[in-house]
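Just scan my protein:

——
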Amino acid sequence: MSGFVVKRFPQDRYSAVFNPNSGVFARIEDAGAPEPFWAQHGPELLDVSITNWCDKGCHFCYRKSDQEGDHISVEDYIEVMRQARDMHVFQVALGGGNPNQHPDFPEILRLTREDFGIVPNYTTNGRGLTDQVLATTAKHCGAVAVSAYAPYEETAEAVDRLRAAGVSTNLHFILTSRSVETAIEWLHNPPPFLKRANAIVFLNYKPVGRFSDPKLLLNRSPRVAEFFRLATAGKQSFRIGFDTCTITGLVRLGSASDVSLEGCDAGRFSLFVSEKMEVYPCSFMVEAGYKGIPLKGSSLREIWQNHPSFQGIRTKHAAKGCADCTTPGHCLSGCPLFPEMNLCPSKCTTQSATCKT
């Protein structure tokens, strides 16, 4: 187990094994214990928006980020990390906006890893990757994801710059009813920059943000089943991953091994902190009209364990889908916030009265 960090959580009856250098992570249940449903001790992953500033203005941005966006202060971020360390958080996903354009970004990366022993990762649109940002990223980050935006010139350039700096670099590709055509084409004929990346991670489109359009929902495409068959067949020469919001498609339409399947972890193993120091089970709740929980005057531990918003989303997860669901153990009802984006070919996709979400 050289290089691994092992933490046992008796109250949850499992141990967590994490390699901060490779990113390998696993939960190992105690003998005779069931797979943990949620981590009472605290989240394993923290999703933190350190800025809502961005100069790209993408029409589909789920946070409506622009050049008026706020930055989190270093002092506030340090307080978040202090509490995260006390809750045994392993990794933090830094988001935005475009996080690497936060004015104190190199310092944020440094203190996350050196002062608190937490591995930082981030997603970038490819802009603002200065020499200082690249050097600090290579020294402190676990991995970086580059968002794939047509026409993909900036995407390819960002992948190449990060890889040249020695950074493990993934691609994030948003699946919509339209972009799935490109995804299928890439699965057959990957562009050169995809082959240079560590992996491509497919993200299910969420109907929230600057341009929320039901016609863009992935389940509106007649090629959904074809995509999941191709993506899980294991025939590509590059690595493929998925966000947990694709779980219903993976379970019902794909051929991935059961051991690789994970239901939505919002409120179970992860939480989100906004640049305004407000806490949510999931980052997509911000622009969907949900009220954030002020961190100041409370604590991450108290919010995690006892706040009704977190208890409520865990209750929805525990409902385990529709009455006709054949795979409730994996799906955990799919998305409890936006069930209209679920991908299972059942009554759930039409929001029938049997749906418990």
About this structure: The chain has a mean pLDDT of 91. Residues 150 and 229 are 24 Å apart (CA to CA). The first strand starts at residue 5 and ends at 9. The first helix runs from residue 74 to 86.
